[in-house]
Write a structure and sequence with these properties.
CATH class of the largest domain: Alpha Beta
Low-confidence stretches: none
Structural class: alpha/beta
Distance between the termini: 68 Å
Number of domains: 2
Strand order of the largest sheet: 2-1-3
CATH superfamily of the largest domain: Periplasmic binding protein-like II
Radius of gyration: 24 Å
Number of helices: 4
Number of strands: 3
Helix content: 40-55%
Order of helices and strands: HEHEHEH
CATH architecture of the largest domain: 3-Layer(aba) Sandwich
Length: 123
């Protein structure tokens, strides 16, 4: 049988889990609503996000989406941003990152550039 401290700890955990279950129940079955602030590079917005907006707004009509297009680092907390879409590796270990899409990159040069500088041999 558990010690007095062990039994008290167990009872506290049972109450915490019940509170958590009740809190999660408040949102089950409800439609997401409110403002969602998202920052992303302009190219990602134009090529990936904007084409998907009709489906998103049809699925989540109560979401007021605010999209910022920029390539600068964003401080989510200070700037009140909910989500940032960026390419590459996550530099802040306190953030949760998920892969969304793979985008191939190509290197291009104008004919004038190539005439003036030649074909690059490395990047």
């Amino acid at each position: 049988s558990p010690t007095l401290d062990g039994a008290a700890y167990y009872q506290r955990c049972v109450r915490l889990l019940a509170d958590l279950e009740e809190s999660e129940g408040l949102f089950r079955g409800s439609q997401p609503k409110g403002t969602l602030r998202v920052e992303m590079p302009a190219a990602v917005g134009r090529l990936v996000v904007f084409p998907a907006l009709p489906e998103f707004t049809g699925r989540y009509p109560q979401i007021d989406l605010e999209i910022g297009l920029n390539d600068r680092p964003v401080d989510l907390i200070r700037e009140g941003v909910d989500c940032v879409i960026r390419g590459g590796l996550t530099v802040d270990d306190s953030l949760v990152a998920r892969p969304l899409v793979q985008m191939d990159q190509i290197t291009c040069a104008s004919p004038d550039y190539l005439r003036a500088h030649g074909v690059p041999q490395s990047l």
